[in-house]
UniProtKB/TrEMBL annotation:
Residues 23-120 form the BTB domain. It comes from Leucopsar rothschildi (Bali myna). SMART domains: BTB. GO terms for biological process: protein homooligomerization. This is KCD14 protein. It holds the Pfam family BTB_2. InterPro entries: BTB/POZ_dom, KCTD7/14_C, SKP1/BTB/POZ_sf, T1-type_BTB.
């Protein structure tokens, strides 16, 4: 029994060579539907997105025969608008930047990196944090300590020692020796050679812990009477709130 053209499975049509396809392409990007042209998708030949649609199809199709890309569909509209009109997005910059990196659209990546949001993060903040020894590892250590102390508690705290110079690091160690707490539970940040201050680093710590989904605040840690140094010069209490 022959099958009329209108009843041929759509999935088989789209999995044939791209050279035989209509120049109009339907996409399913993470559940969001888009219609565009092959020439738009292949506008930047060196990009990963262009490679997806060059030669034999390199993508699976959904039940309706649309090419499926397993990425956040919400931000693909900004990628598509750039390909269509060279319009650089002004919304959701951080998220669009991640997608531009994934699709490897080099001109868009460079233009986004010139935006205040990405420039500030990559060139200013990240370059500063790269000069703070073991910054990422210390963030993870803070979270592990806080989680370990969260049993049957609404809140748990982590004591952080922040020092900017080698001299402060030595003074902090002296202070730590007389601080009434378990030294192993104190997380030490610094020293570093960069312009940002201790308050700048504290803001970065809060920002990066909150980016992982935690609710956190901090305040100077005040030690008991008779303490040899002003403990708040070095020590801060970060409070994790669990519920």
């Amino acid at each position: 029994m022959s099958i009329s053209p209108e009843h041929k499975p759509l999935g088989k049509q789209v999995t044939s060579s791209l050279h035989t396809l209509s120049p109009i392409v339907e996409l399913n990007v993470g559940g969001e539907m888009y219609t565009t042209t092959l020439s738009t998708l292949k506008k930047h030949p060196g990009s990963k997105l262009a490679e997806m649609f060059t030669g034999q199809p390199k993508l699976r199709t959904d039940s309706e025969g649309r090419f499926f890309i397993d990425r956040p569909g919400t931000y693909f509209k900004y990628i598509l608008e750039y390909l269509r009109s060279n319009q650089v997005p002004t919304q959701c910059i951080q998220d669009v930047y991640k997608e531009a990196l994934f699709y490897d659209i080099e001109p868009l990546i460079k233009q986004l990196e010139d935006s205040p949001q990405i420039f500030g993060e990559l060139v200013a903040r990240r370059q500063f944090l790269a000069r703070v020894p073991n910054y990422s590892e210390n963030i993870e250590l803070m979270i592990r300590i806080a989680r370990a102390e969260a049993v049957a508690s609404r809140q748990s705290s982590v004591i952080v020692c922040v020092v900017r110079t080698e001299e402060d690091a030595a003074r902090c160690q002296d202070a730590l020796n007389s601080l009434d707490t378990d030294k192993k539970s104190v997380v030490k940040f610094g020293p570093w050679k960069a312009v940002p201050s201790i308050s700048d680093l504290l803001d970065c710590i809060q920002m990066d812990v909150e980016a992982k989904g935690y609710k956190i605040s901090f305040q100077p840690h005040v030690a008991e009477k008779g303490f040899r140094f002003k403990s708040h010069d070095f020590f801060y209490k970060f409070l994790f709130t669990w519920w």
